């Protein structure tokens, strides 16, 4: 069996990851990697931060810091979010490392020697005021194809057209805001036309197994015909080429490799980095990276979003083929479409986005993170754009994870602990249950009949110990795990997860049909058998669900006092037994002690979801993470007059969902305060309450209403507001807060 190399597109280290990124290239790859490991296969899952290019320098300019500070900030922030999200990378590397720079320069030097590169003088926009050539993303103008007025220098986000930056109409430098001039400069170009025939054959060789969107986009590019493409840029941040032999220094000064050329090589350099780490630990050799990239016994799967298709189906394969040395090519590129948010595209500028780190702050428990993984997995944009909604997240958690999967686990383990002090000891009559179970699985494996025929023709010998409910449940387990595996192999994760959830549905039906709450009173042996079988299914479900909800599966294994294996990273140097197949077979659990069960998924209430929805689209004042807030002096604090006040009247502000008009008694006067708490308190509830206000705030108008002061309130992770009050309620209005 071939080993499997898996990569996910390297995220730019110029911003925080949002849920659209997770659904595009990361969660499906993690599910696949964990599944493959559980199948007992040798797996290496590689990713890392893309830390070069204009996107990084633009972010640095905006934040007034160096590119190094930008990549450090976002690399570590995104890595932390990935870790908490449950990503099982074998390595998460960086393209700013020396091993990557050296790898990229080796490719450049080799291509130059083989005649795949030529240097050409060309015209490019230059900003006189800034004193620099303008990379494509530093220029904005009117798209020559569709007329979009905010097109980038090399590509239009509106129509998807690619073009030379000089074709852009009405260009403006994003550095100075001025119209740039045209100057001549030298760049190196890769002659991709030399790879046209090879790539046509490569793409068509996968016509039967690649997604249609991947094939059609690749064919479209090939139909237009490949041409030379610049692989260097005038930029100070990136992989420099001025120290490469046979490259004229006067031409190479100020040149770096274009990020689209060197970033994909990050997969290779990350593998080299990992083998260097393992070599230092005495667990691998420095050259062991070659077995993952230059051995035909390795199958390479590249997970990406649809905006990266041609870079992984045409450009990267051409580079690997051109390099030679038996580099393997992607065997599949299961690109996803885009995930939308509440029916609209993700947009951080409009605050129509959910960053992964913000979600984790609001739902820090493992159940919340797994609920997100499950919801995203059930909405993966596998063949067309899909949608994440908070209401769907709530429904998936409440109606599926809690009501089906969690319900079966909880009712089984609670019943077992209450009535048997753990997993029941198998009665003498059922002492051969495990053997009969295994024989039934062997029968299902060996006979290619229809479902109806399989169940109708179960050998009578097996039915002596297994009743109809037992047989149907074991069949559902066998069929669900088999179907899920087949679907995962074809990158149909949504359907595969549905098959797994169907096993949980069958397990609940079995519990109901067997009625252990009845048999425990009049047939203890039968009740013990039922709960023993259910405990086996708890373990099976934990194993089969572990690629999707690994945190929860680990918790269930701990309750059962079993080793927890959820397809975690093995760093490519070992492999598990076939735990996927083992999940359909019973373990020797008779009489095993278990720990007190806990609720795996609790119901998410409407108010939690409504608070999240209300945040979308609200333009909040930017708050950069800082080590600490600026310190103030006691004199600064003394300027703020905090007082108690009693609310004497409260009513809603017309045409506003969020504002209440409050009349308060401050002890010295009565005044009106407009407070944004209408979604959290009914007006009648507030009357008579003692609150704390800022009494000397400059008056302001909100929705045409004058507000003379500010009511103090606090909000937690749910977004719910709670007004601040005193410990006791006998303080009169007007008491000073010190």
Explain what the structure shows.
- This protein is an alpha+beta fold and 738 residues long.
- It contains 26 helices and 25 strands.
- The model is unreliable at 620-628 (pLDDT under 50).
- The radius of gyration is 31 Å and the shape is flat.
- It starts with a strand and ends in a 15-residue tail after the last strand.
- A five-stranded parallel beta sheet has the order 3-2-1-13-14. Strands 19-18-17-20-23 form a five-stranded antiparallel beta sheet.
- Among the domains are: 3-102 and 262-357, HUPs (Rossmann fold); 112-259, Methionyl-trna Synthetase, domain 2 (Beta Complex); 634-723, OB fold (Dihydrolipoamide Acetyltransferase, E2P) (Beta Barrel), CATH 2.40.50.
- It is 42% helix and 16% strand.
- Strand 18 and strand 19 (670-675) form a beta hairpin.
The third-level CATH topology of the domain at 3-102 and 262-357 is: Rossmann fold
The separation of the N and C termini measures 72 Å
CATH architecture of the domain at 3-102 and 262-357: 3-Layer(aba) Sandwich
Proportion of helical residues: 40-55%
Q: Number of DSSP strands?
A: 25
Rounded to an integer in angstroms, the radius of gyration calculated over CA atoms is 31 Å
What's the overall average pLDDT, rounded?
92
Class from secondary-structure proportions: alpha+beta
Basic shape: flat
Number of helices: 26
Poorly predicted segments: 620-628
Which CATH top level class of the domain at 3-102 and 262-357 fits? Alpha Beta
